């Protein structure tokens, strides 16, 4: 096999990966109920897309090839604490029983997050009497 054939194969593989990556990003950003949000873990911010599912908040990294969420927070034990608002970007400390992260998003997305969390069905362990 000549070096031109190897170079062509490498270029085709890289092109296929690029097309796959761009299709994934387009799919994530065009989903209903998605919003752009950055997550900070261990002092580094990562850009991503957040989804408000029925039972959990799911966050996908943009710079990834995986179709699985990089972060999943349970809706029933979700806590949201607004840290600051600056230049129409809200930064909040968001967590569940197992994970706590910083999340930056637009003020509109933060309002949607709080409304989504507040509208969760009541937990089964509550007792009225």
Automatic annotation (TrEMBL):
It comes from the Bacteria. InterPro entries: DUF2550. The chain crosses the membrane at residues 6-23. It holds the Pfam family DUF2550. Keywords: Membrane, Transmembrane, Transmembrane helix. This is DUF2550 family protein. The lineage of its organism: Bacteria, Bacillati, Actinomycetota, Actinomycetes, Actinomycetales.
């Amino acid at each position: 096999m000549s070096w031109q054939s190897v170079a062509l194969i490498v270029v085709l593989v890289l092109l296929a990966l690029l097309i796959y990556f761009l299709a994934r990003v387009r799919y994530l950003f065009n989903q209903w109920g998605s919003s752009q949000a950055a997550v900070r873990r261990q002092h580094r911010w990562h850009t991503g897309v957040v989804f408000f599912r029925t039972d959990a908040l799911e966050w996908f990294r943009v710079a990834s090839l995986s179709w699985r969420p990089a972060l999943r927070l349970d809706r029933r034990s979700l806590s949201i604490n607004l840290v600051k608002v600056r230049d129409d970007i809200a930064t909040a400390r968001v967590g569940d029983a197992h994970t706590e992260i910083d999340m930056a998003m637009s003020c509109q997305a933060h309002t949607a997050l709080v409304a989504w969390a507040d509208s969760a069905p009541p937990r089964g362990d509550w007792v009225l009497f």
